[in-house]
Amino acid sequence: MPEAVDTCSLATPASVCRTKHLHLRCSVDFTRRTLSGTAALTVQSQEDNLRSLVSVPKELVALMSAIRDGEAPDPEDPSRKIYRFRQKTESMLKIAEDLGGQYVWGQYDLLVLPPSFPYGGMENPCLTFVTPTLLAGDKSLSNVIAHEISHSWTGNLVTNKTWDHFWLNEGHTVYLERHICGRLFGEKFRHFHALGGWGELQNSIKTFGETSPFTKLVVDLSDTDPDVAYSSVPYEKGFALLFYLEQLLGGPEVFLGFLKAYVKEFSYKSITTDDWKDFLYSHFKDKAKDDDLSSFNVTDLKDLSSHQRSEFLAQVLQRAPLPLGHIKRMQEVYNFNAINNSEIRFRWLRLCIQSKWEEAIPLALKMATEQGRMKFTRPLFKDLAAFDKSHDQAVRTFQEHRARMHPVTAMLVGKDLKVD
């Protein structure tokens, strides 16, 4: 069978591109901060002019004409030249190859563009464009170079099929970038940048609004200019998902193994989030499924103090609702129903009701009425009212006990339940 051709690419790996040769005569004022110029352009059809041994996404082909700049004699050795732009590029490339697989593009160059360039970098294959604002003088902004290098795998080798799935490019690239920097500067450096990225994500969500569709990881841009939706969301929300999966599925080395396999599987292809998700599930098919609860063990909480057990349930409650099978298994193994500590019991019963376990309804109603502390009573009644199987019981039980409640408690619970 003939080799499949990705229509989103300029060429398949084994072919030679067919292109038109551009005869360009150009006059440019390079002394200005914002370049401008005039050009006379003629086009002559030719073949075999541009040879691509690697499949290149069409949108990543770029032309650049520039005067070489940035060199200076070494004062200690006149035979050598010093370049202002001195990052750990070679080390980054070697680390990236270790993380993502072979660098297939042959050459890697960096081109510093004029100050008007609107981005930190642009990952054109073989030649990355970067902003001159990276020239800090102390190499402190090298993470941008690590980011653009990482695009050689995630973005250029494996590409999002449409802008709706832009996070596939940028989320994976930020993830690789931070691992490269972690190898160079230490794991704490990686976590430090992850923390900063989380702050950037919060800023973007605040700008758009929490309910904006542009805060989604996969967006619908069918009627929207992608530049209008551009933000840190695909970068940092994408990274946050991958970082969470790293912790969930076995740690950095395990998840980096997945990443390398992902690049190998989808090299020279343009994919969607569903393609990524299907491969994720396939790669980690040996991990526990939702109905595999054998890992629950009575010793899990044996050595925890009451405060620690309470906090454990508080953390689990943030992820509610849980699958009902998980709740039943937790009761079977840990027997939370037998615990009298009010803080633990309160969190456990809220978890049960939010996960829609009908057997817990009588226990939750009992705790909501046998004491009057609003910290416990109001949230329990709210949860019970939100559960369709217990809503009517919650209202009826409140009305039965209302006269025996403190007036403030009765008033506020009545408002919560919308009972006059």
From TrEMBL:
It holds the Pfam family Peptidase_M1. Transmembrane segments: none annotated. GO terms for cellular component: cytosol; nucleus. Zn(2+) binds at H147, H151, E170. Keywords: Cytoplasm, Hydrolase, Metal-binding, Metalloprotease, Protease, Zinc. Residues 282-417 form the Peptidase M1 leukotriene A4 hydrolase/aminopeptidase C-terminal domain. The active site is at E148, Y235. GO terms for molecular function: aminopeptidase activity; epoxide hydrolase activity; leukotriene-A4 hydrolase activity; metallopeptidase activity; zinc ion binding. It comes from the Eukaryota. One of its GO terms (biological process) is peptide catabolic process. Its cofactor is Zn(2+). Binds 1 zinc ion per subunit. Its main location: cytoplasm. This is Leukotriene A-4 hydrolase. Belongs to the peptidase M1 family. The keyword Protease applies. PANTHER family: LEUKOTRIENE A-4 HYDROLASE (PTHR45726). It is found in: Cytoplasm.
